[in-house]
Design goal:
115 residues, mainly alpha, 3 helices, 68% helix, transmembrane, membrane
Length: 115
């Protein structure tokens, strides 16, 4: 299952970031990718990237290296359910991004309010 986990993480990166940025560039002339602005946005970005690195990359690599998960979680039905849920989630993320259309941005930008 670690290979499947790495594959789903790669799929999410390809569809949720790379393909969506290319589509956005095709539609609007710019990729929609922005650096986070403000402390809260940076903290959210760091937590998000940290979660992807730990759960999507480091954990499967650790399992490939011989480190085992909790025995209660290592049931084949649970592994298949997790893989199916991850794949379904990737599809839902891409569909939601498509629904945002030209408004899609990878990171929120600070909007100035008129004074």
């Amino acid at each position: 299952m670690p290979i499947a986990s790495l594959a789903v993480t790669a799929l999410l990166g390809l569809t949720g970031v790379a393909a969506r940025a290319l589509l956005q560039r095709h539609r609007t002339g710019e990729s929609g990718m922005r650096w986070p602005s403000g402390t809260r946005h940076w903290c959210a970005w760091l937590v998000s990237v940290g979660g992807i690195l730990l759960a999507g990359i480091a954990a499967p690599l650790a399992e490939l290296g011989g480190l085992r998960s909790l025995p209660v979680l290592d049931h084949s039905v649970l592994r298949m359910a997790r893989a199916a849920l991850a794949a379904l989630s990737t599809g839902v993320v891409f569909a939601c991004q498509q629904a945002m259309g030209a408004s899609w941005r990878l990171h929120p930008t600070r909007v100035s309010t008129p004074s």
